[in-house]
């Protein structure tokens, strides 16, 4: 057994694994299952809370009482951080990327309800100097007598990796109980931490499944580099490393569509289709694009060699509300 860093317990775990029988039948390919990480909680829902369990423990170990993080205007990560902070009696500051005139909707609205401080920065500043900006906020808070801790975008860093390491352990246990083996696991990739954790556990626990990330922004080489870096950082928390090459990081490119958080009508129609067919609602930024991608890859025959595919529903429902005017139009 590998000794993992400590964590606090905030998420509702284990999350269920459900069969998508009607979708599988319509496609006539592999059996598709879905792991409901959209149901890790309500205020804290989605994949970020698994990573935050490790990250926030580290903040608490350092006696911090103020969490600073960043994300897009509809960031699920920022909202989960704000919710977890309030739950634990901490304060939070979320730095959100905005080009102005965003409607008070979805996660942005919930950040306000949860009492987070909100700071807006431009897309350019977000890209070029979000870390500097968070450092400035940190310095200001220290002057005011607080003990701040910075969480990078998506909690996708070395310590955050263990959130999905633990999720992989959970999947192994569920496989045993279900008497089944998932020969491919598919998930949306946005900042790389979810993929990193699953990849690390897949290697260290000797599971040997295929893990596919479908990127929802940037491109495959970008994520191979980013995930490679996150993994290197994660090794400093355990007394083990893994041997791997960047090429083993399998990113399926081609489903970014019109760009991060931009929806095409095909993507929104797909979300509507799956909701009617299976009663599962995907989000427009991550899971909608990733599942759309998976279904397309199955249709192309690229998943013919797999029997049981597990798709991770990483959450994001609140983000759908900001797109309501684009539906049914
Ligand atoms: C952040 C997020 C992802 C992507 O996870 P990463 O670890 O950032 O790659 C996927 N789905 C949802 C709903 C998210 O909020």
From TrEMBL:
The protein's required cofactor(s) are namely:
pyridoxal 5'-phosphate
Which PANTHER family does this entry report, sorted A to Z?
1-AMINOCYCLOPROPANE-1-CARBOXYLATE DEAMINASE-RELATED (PTHR43780)
Highest taxon, organism lineage: Bacteria
Q: Which organism is it from?
A: Alkaliphilus flagellatus
Per the UniProt record, which residue ranges are transmembrane?
none
Which terms are listed as keywords in the entry? Pyridoxal phosphate
Pfam families hit by this protein: PALP
Q: What is this protein called?
A: D-cysteine desulfhydrase family protein
Tell me which residues make up the Tryptophan synthase beta chain-like PALP domain: 10-315
């Amino acid at each position: 057994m590998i000794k993992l860093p400590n964590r606090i317990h905030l998420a509702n775990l284990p999350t269920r694994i459900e069969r998508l029988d009607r979708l599988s039948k319509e496609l006539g390919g592999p059996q598709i299952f879905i792991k409901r990480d959209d149901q890790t909680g309500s205020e804290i829902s989605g994949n970020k809370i698994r990573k935050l369990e490790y990250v926030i423990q580290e903040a608490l170990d350092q006696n911090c009482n103020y969490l600073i993080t960043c994300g897009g205007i509809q960031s699920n990560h920022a909202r989960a951080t704000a919710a977890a902070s309030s739950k634990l009696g901490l304060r939070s500051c979320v730095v959100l990327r905005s080009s102005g005139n965003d409607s008070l909707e979805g996660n942005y609205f919930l950040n306000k309800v949860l009492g987070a401080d909100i700071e807006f920065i431009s897309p350019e500043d977000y890209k070029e100097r979000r870390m500097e900006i968070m450092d400035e906020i940190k310095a200001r808070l220290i002057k005011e007598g607080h003990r701040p801790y910075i969480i990078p975008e998506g909690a996708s860093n070395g310590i955050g990796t263990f959130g999905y390491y633990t999720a992989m352990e959970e999947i192994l246990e569920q496989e045993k109980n279900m008497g089944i083996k998932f020969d491919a696991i598919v998930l949306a990739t946005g900042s790389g931490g979810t993929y990193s954790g699953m990849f690390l556990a897949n290697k260290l626990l000797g599971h040997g499944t295929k893990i596919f990330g479908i990127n929802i922004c940037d491109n495959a080489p970008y994520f191979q580099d980013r995930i490679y870096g996150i993994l290197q950082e994660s090794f400093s928390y355990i007394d083990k490393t893994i041997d791997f090459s960047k090429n083993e990081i399998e990113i399926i490119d081609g489903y970014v569509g019109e760009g991060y958080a931009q929806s095409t009508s095909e993507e929104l129609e797909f979300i509507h289709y799956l909701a009617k067919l299976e009663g599962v609602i995907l989000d427009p930024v991550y899971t909608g694009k990733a599942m759309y991608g998976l279904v397309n890859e199955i249709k192309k025959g690229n998943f013919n060699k797999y029997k049981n595919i597990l798709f991770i529903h990483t959450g994001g429902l609140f983000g759908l509300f900001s797109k309501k005017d684009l539906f049914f139009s």
